[in-house]
UniProtKB/TrEMBL annotation:
The lineage of its organism: Bacteria, Pseudomonadati, Pseudomonadota, Gammaproteobacteria, Pseudomonadales. The chain crosses the membrane at residues 22-43, 55-82, 103-127, 133-151, 158-177, 197-217, 229-253, 265-283, 309-326, 332-353, 365-384, 390-408. InterPro entries: CodB (IPR030191), Pur-cyt_permease (IPR001248). It is found in: Membrane. Pfam families: Transp_cyt_pur. This is Cytosine permease. Gene3D superfamilies: Hydantoin permease. The gene is codB.
Amino acid sequence: MSNATPDSDYPLSEVPSGARKGLFSTAILLFGFTFFTATMFAGGKIGMAFDFTTLLWAAVIGNLLLGLYAAALGFIACRSGLNSVLMGRFCFGEVGSKLSDMLLGFTQIGWYAWGTATVAIVLVKILGLPEGLTIPLMVLFGFGFCLTAFVGYKGLDLLSRIAVPAMLVLLVASLWIATRDIGGLAGLLAVEPSESMSLSVAITLVFGTFVSGATQATNWTRFARSGRVAVLASLLGFFIGNGLMIVAGAYGAIVYQQPDVVEVLVLQGLSMAAVIMLFLNLWTTQDNTIYNFAAAGCNLLRTGKRKTVTLAGAGIGTLLAIGGMYELLIPFLILLGSIIPPIGGVIMADYFYAHRARYPKLADARLPAFNWVGLGAYLIGALSAYFSPWVAPLVGIAVAALAYVALFELNKALAGRQQVAGA
């Protein structure tokens, strides 16, 4: 008997054909997910280090690579109906998959704490509220932001349909005012970089800032109606959506020395628009983040009680925000940004190479407690990413995938020898 019910978003099983969604629903949800304040700060760093033309090239290359990575995983998710944590059972084993559950879940709860603290602190500052309201606001938003995730895919979809068009309007208006303030395109192109950075570091920043999110975007692309829908939605969300955030952050840094669009809107005299942007920007990422945590938590605990795990996650994230631990978590979360992508590399190699692009039904599969091929490949990929001087997340993905193929063939050869020796 399945552990999932139709209204539980299938936390422990494949998404059935009757629950699949079209391109608009999938794409706008991913768009809302990638509209993330932290990405703008990466854009801001790049904006101060390059002329505008080179900046655009860095944004295009980095976000195209990110979009292709998300699209490859999205295609697998759609075809299998599984998300990354459920696919982890095939490539890491029944018990081994708990490693990826903990890594992915902890990353998401850390970002949730950061977003919850940020919205409370910035609102107090923008609206001139008493400092004593900061913690009550953290509690309010810590549980408030999880409401759409508590409902499930339908709640996330509804919010995105309202929030994404509103944010796009505010973003375009802000960019237009910024272009006017700097003296048009000629003024923008005339700005000289004030800092230095290599192109590979810039691409690493663009790709690495949200690659952990791309690894877990399978939570929604598995609902896609077809492989084409999953691929197109991933490219729209991560290439276009994330790209807009990078460019907006760079624009703000060049014109106002401030990468955050919320702060930029305040400088432009649009304080109320800034509050709306802050609220929508963080909510559309926060609810997706806690939904990701719930998906990882359900697989870790082998429970179908997604709503309970969602509320528990919101509570943990709120406590981390109130305790100020979110400030300490950020460096660690950025580290995880380089060691999480190899999970995606292992998943791709396991699906396309070991399973020949077809998983058996999860309920019928007889899986080992530990898949040492997948775990070994992940370790090699993660170490390569950590010590890589080049684009660390890309190195981690590629090395993990190649290591999986090599270890898979080695394991097969060893098993063949044992059979011959035992005959």
